[in-house]
């Protein structure tokens, strides 16, 4: 039996989709695949929090609440921040130049054997740990 591909959205990917930015079209494609059960789509709760605080800071609380409601309607599984995941993220952060929130995405992707969808260049520092599908071309 062939296992389904598993994709992980980081905040860059979800914001690209929500704001109709470059790379958002690919996220929309993967959302459609997940909705039809052709792949699994996951996201760390830490990265969800990142999307919500960015939205609230830039567009206000009502917009952040609307975004949260929209996200909850998506075929997206949220990865809890367990003790083990927190320790894994801390270890990744200690040895790689990326944000702590991004370290959670990497730790979650490793746990789920997922491909990270992103355009954030910080992930170039962890290409030895996880597979990354770039939503925008990296230079």
What does this structure look like?
This protein has one domain (5-134): 5'-nuclease (Rossmann fold), CATH 3.40.50.1010. Helices cover 53% and strands 16% of the residues. The chain has helices at 11-18, 24-35, 45-59, 61-72, 83-95, 100-112; strands spanning 5-9, 39-44, 77-79, 115-118, 131-134. Strands 3-2-1-4-5 form a 5-stranded parallel β-sheet. It is globular and about 35 Å long. The termini are far apart. The mean pLDDT is 95.
List the helices and strands and how they pair.
Layout: E1 5-9, H1 11-18, H2 24-35, E2 39-44, H3 45-59, H4 61-72, E3 77-79, H5 83-95, H6 100-112, E4 115-118, E5 131-134
Parallel strand pairs: 1-2, 1-4, 2-3, 4-5
Helix pairs in contact: 1-2, 1-3, 3-4, 5-6
Keywords:
alpha/beta; Rossmann fold; 139 residues
Spatial shape:
globular
Helix content, binned percent: 40-55%
Count of discrete alpha- or pi-helical segments spanning 4 or more residues: 6
Stretches with pLDDT under 50, minimum 5 residues: none
Would you count the extended β strands for me? 5
CATH architecture: 3-Layer(aba) Sandwich
Order of helices and strands: EHHEHHEHHEE
How many strands, which pairing sense, and closed or not: the largest β-sheet?
Answer: 5 strands, parallel
What is the residue-mean pLDDT, rounded to a whole number?
A: 95
Distance between the termini: 38 Å
CATH fold field value: Rossmann fold
CATH superfamily: 5'-nuclease
What is the radius of gyration?
14 Å
Oligomer: single chain
- Overall CATH class: Alpha Beta
